[in-house]
From TrEMBL:
Taxonomic lineage: Bacteria, Pseudomonadati, Pseudomonadota, Betaproteobacteria, Burkholderiales
PANTHER family tied to this protein: DISULFIDE BOND FORMATION PROTEIN B
GO cellular component terms, semicolon-separated: plasma membrane
InterPro entries: DiS_bond_form_DsbB/BdbC, DsbB, DsbB-like_sf
Transmembrane segments: 12-32, 44-60, 67-87, 138-158
Protein name: Thiol:disulfide interchange protein DsbB
Places the protein is found: Cell membrane
Length: 163
C-alpha cells in the first residue's frame, strides 16, 4: 500500500472536509427536513468548488504553475465561503426573504437550483432557514469550517516544496 506525501494528504483532507460538510447539509435537509435558503445552497457550492480545487491541484502536480494556482485558490474560496456564512448569519437570517440577494440571483441564474434541486434547490427564506445544531446556528458552524479550511490551505501553500 502506498502512502501519500503529507501535502497530498492535507489536500485530500480539505476536500473530504468539504464533501463531509455538504453531506451533513444534505442529511439535515432530506432526513431531518431542514430546508435550505439561498445562502445555504450557495455555501454548498463553495464547499464543492474547494474540493474540486484540491483534487485539481493534485491532478495537475506535473504542471507546477497550474497546481499552484489551484492551491492558491483554496484559501481564497474558503475566505469567500466564510464571508457568505457571516453574511447569512449577520444579515440574511434577519431578512424576511433572501429574494434578489447575491446568493439567490447567482443560484437561480446559474440554473443550479432547477437543474439539481436535491442539492441546490432553494426551499426556504433566510429567516426560516435559521436553525441550530448543538445550540449553534448552522451558519456559524459553516463560518468556522471555512476558516479552518482557509488556515489549512494557507498552511499547505507555506509548506509547498517546489519540484
Amino acid at each position: 500500500m502506498t502512502s501519500f506525501p503529507a501535502s497530498d494528504r492535507l489536500l485530500h483532507g480539505i476536500a473530504l472536509l468539504c464533501i463531509g460538510a455538504v453531506l451533513v447539509a444534505l442529511i439535515s435537509q432530506h432526513v431531518f427536513d431542514m430546508r435550505p435558503c439561498a445562502w445555504c445552497v450557495f455555501q454548498r457550492l463553495i464547499y464543492l468548488l474547494i474540493a474540486v480545487l484540491c483534487w485539481g491541484a493534485l491532478a495537475a502536480r506535473r504542471w507546477q504553475p497550474v497546481s499552484f494556482l489551484f492551491c492558491a485558490a483554496v484559501p481564497l474560496a474558503a475566505i469567500g465561503g466564510a464571508l457568505a456564512a457571516w453574511y447569512q448569519y449577520d444579515v440574511a437570517s434577519e431578512m424576511f426573504s433572501c429574494d434578489l440577494t447575491f446568493a439567490d440571483r447567482f443560484m437561480v441564474n446559474s440554473g443550479l437550483d432547477a437543474g439539481l434541486p436535491w442539492l441546490f434547490g432553494i426551499q426556504a427564506s433566510c429567516l426560516d432557514a435559521k436553525v441550530d445544531l448543538l445550540g449553534v446556528e448552522y451558519a456559524i458552524w459553516s463560518l468556522a469550517l471555512f476558516l479552518v479550511i482557509a488556515v489549512l490551505g494557507i498552511r499547505h501553500l507555506a509548506n509547498r516544496k517546489p519540484q
